[in-house]
Amino acid sequence: MLEAQEVALEFHARKSARAKTYRYRIYRAPTCPPFLARYVWHYPYPLDEPAMEQAAQQVVGEHDFRSFAAVDPEPGRADPSGVRRIFHSSWTRMGDELVYTVKGSGFLHHMVRNLVGTFVLVGKGTLKPEDMIVILDQRKRSAAGATAPANGLYLLRVEYEPVTQ
pTM for this one? Predict the structure, then answer.
């Protein structure tokens, strides 16, 4: 859908957004097609996908996500509170891809990639799904997993009207 409409002078493309939806794609087959390699994280190793789905549910709601923020936020984008509301967080299998979809009121710099990196630790068995709450409560970047590669991340939608849950 493509449309345009006049907005108030105070409108700001990022600050006026009420919700954003991101998708992260992990390619799970042993060999990644070369034309797809730039657009997914190729991870052919064993993962407990149901545990990752349980972990994804732990972040739904309003939390302080500083544990999942970039260590060095972009200038002018630092948010000392780190509080965001996640409306939806889930993993789904789509053929050879494991796809994470998250919708929230806003996201800290690298937050989605840091969540995905931590969910992969759950999938590997290094963490348990309930560890997500402990990580959130610590509010320290060092408590969470490594940052997932950028090539699997996509911004799907930005909503400016009242958010639908």
Answer: 0.91
